[in-house]
Amino acid sequence: MSEQSRKTIEVRGFLHLDAVFRKKGTIPLIMGLEDPITGIELAAKLEITLDEIEVIFVNGFVQELDYMIYPGDRIAFLPPGCPGPYRIALGFYGKNKSNESNFKIKKKE
Known about the structure:
Elements lengths: L7 E6 L2 H9 L4 E4 L4 E2 H7 L9 E4 L2 E3 L4 E2 L4 E5 L5 H7 L1 E4 L5 E3 L6
Parallel strand pairs: 1-7
Antiparallel strand pairs: 1-2, 3-6, 4-5, 4-7, 8-9
């Protein structure tokens, strides 16, 4: 990993969030990051409201929005509305009564 990539993160968006990121620059959006932040903090920096995000992917694994993101990570935001079969394949499913995502985090074996 180069020194440059150790101080940056790659950010992408799925569905309508892809257009949001394209307006901010090239895809993936490369952002400088010196210190770890949560997905919630990253969304705020990118001016994306939390109701536009159902889950985030960090280095290919679905995570909760309060998951810590570190320099060198690859991030993708997924908004609500992902079709059913993809939800299971990606590792999350349904919504509970409080409108929060229900998902299981895939563990590396």
